[in-house]
Amino acid sequence: MGMAEVQVREASVARVPVLTERELAERRREEGVRVLEHGGHYWEQVGAPGFFQPIHLLAGLTPQEVTRPAPWCWGYRAALTPETADAANGFVPIVRSPGLDTYDVDSLSANRRNKLRKCQRLVRIVQLTGPALLLEQGYDTVVDALSRTEHKKVPSRAAYAADVKKYFQGAHWCVLAGLVDGRLGGYLDGYAVDGIAYGVCAYYATWALPTNLATGLVFEFAQACRRGGIRMLVNGLHSREVPSLNQFKDDMGFVVERVPIRWSMNPLARALIRRHRAHAYYRLTGQA
What we know:
InterPro entries: Acyl_CoA_acyltransferase (IPR016181). This protein is of the alpha+beta class. The chain contains nine helices and 13 strands.
């Protein structure tokens, strides 16, 4: 039995561990992420250096707490509490599960249920408990997926290996993988804080797409969240420019919610992003 086979367990027993904000901040710092404590919450640098948001994006802050987390940052945003939503100047368009406690096969569209059944016949879905499988087969999967989607830059092999090892140093990531005849067809990751899970990255090899492993992986991740007592799964942000992805998430039973936020951005950066990366600007601010 190879090391890659040893470092897996069946997805049916997987759980997504739930951390507090403080615990997540400590784990993120260990991973090398720039994390600041400000206004009673923890903020992390995301995207281009100098932009910050709370590590728990949906924590819910008051307008008084949403202020510049560092004197040198060029932008920041944070979700508001329901009671202070009237003070919002934008929104973050999340894609989330409705009622995760009752999320099951019947939550999917009829077409998606058929695809889930096909996936269950063809794909073995497992939770990774160590880096062996990804170090062995993951890089080629990521290169394939990113060459197809082009949603971000392909990392170097060394950078990829370093990121894979971070998955297992803090025990807060849940990584599910789909195996087709023992070969890695794709995987996704996520973590949870204060009852809300965030799906972060997903990579699917082109050759494995006909097995519908994306359907199976997302469904099983939601079930792992349910077993952990998590009340909501955030499956990324609304990608209005990718209709096929929106249809997939709709078929999976997810909904788009526009969460009120307070945000601020350097005028020059704002103008550049709005002009040259309009869809990213929409996801950052909720504005066109």
